[in-house]
Amino acid sequence: MALWLSLLVVTYWWTAAGGIQDLGGWASGLTSLGRLTGLVASDLLLAQVLLMARLPLLERAFGQDRLAHQHRIVGFTSFNLMLAHVGLITWGYAAGSLAATPGTLWNLTTTYPGMLLAVAGTLLLLLVVATSVRAARARLRYESWHLLHLYGYLGVGLALPHQLWTGQEFLTSPAATAYWWTAWALTAAAVLVWRVGLPLWRSARHGLHVTSVVREAPGIVSVYVAGRGLHRLPVEPGQFLSWRFLGREGWTRANPYSLSAAPDGRSLRITVKEAGDGSAEAAYLRPGTKVLVEGPYGRLSPRARQRHRVALIGSGVGVTPLRALAEGLDYAPGDAVLVQRFRSHPLFVRELAVLERERGLQTLYLPGRRRASDSWLGDGVGTADDVTALTWWIPDIAQRDVYVCGPSEWTASVRRACAAAGLPPEHFHVESFRW
Asked: Is this prediction's pTM over 0.85?
């Protein structure tokens, strides 16, 4: 609602500045449309940053999965409108002549205040957009993608002078000027407070450090972290934090890992699968290594629960937050079932056996590779279709809250099976592995 209201406001100011009247001429119409696309692109650019600023209000309401999805849509829309702004306004300044447009673009870039900075910012945003395309992301390590993505903040900052120095709709109205300065200032403050200040303060306050590293399976380790007053850290079972382990190469790049054990006020545990440089080095962390954290994040936690009975369904290392939920949720014997799909080595078998004996947790292990790209089942479970198998194992699946964690395509197949079994969408809670 706030985003739509802000778009309505900037469109009103474009209209009040004569934007509609300017559409009557070819050159003036191009320039006017260029101004409108620039205004909307700027507004969406700020919204894009705020979606990933870790604002508690947004985080609690929507969770990181949904926010990341909206961030991606808003980001691509903003960038496309920014390109349209450059093309339209340059074409308009060239009096509607395509032949004169390249020369006009060069003249605007070299003579208008802030334009060189805006060009640099646009190139940085282009780099971020190019590496956010699915085909490009598939070829990049998470650490490389994360580092490149940080340049987006610099790109946004470099675009600011041009907009505030030369933008007609920024300067003609005191209300518009106040709006844009306030919007930019609040966005910058949100990033500095929630992405920088709060993580540094919490990490220093709790004195987080590694206590031990335990091998769980080939290529998978659990890292135990202790600190002061961890009972005051507002983290719930099933949530994740972004972790930086100091004193090693690449420590500036944060890696998101879910808790694999319910927080007990004395220590935290994450379980890491080797998938890149940062995760591979987790196995070699030494006791005493200092830790910086951001978070906690995510709605895959007890507060999403609405029903007494729950089903926890995870794939591979995606079982880690579900393991924490199986320990941290309150349930009667038989009211919770955990389904773990794995290729070769199930995780936390002994720990889950303890929860079976002491809490009445029901567990089901599904071995093997996925039998089809549109199935959530492994190839070692027979030939029954996805929905039949699900309702055979959990007959009352439609009357439970279902928590799911794993790769995005796999979780989508679980969602389809649950929906076909009659589960209302508001009782399906998901955390996917995507970035």
From this structure: no
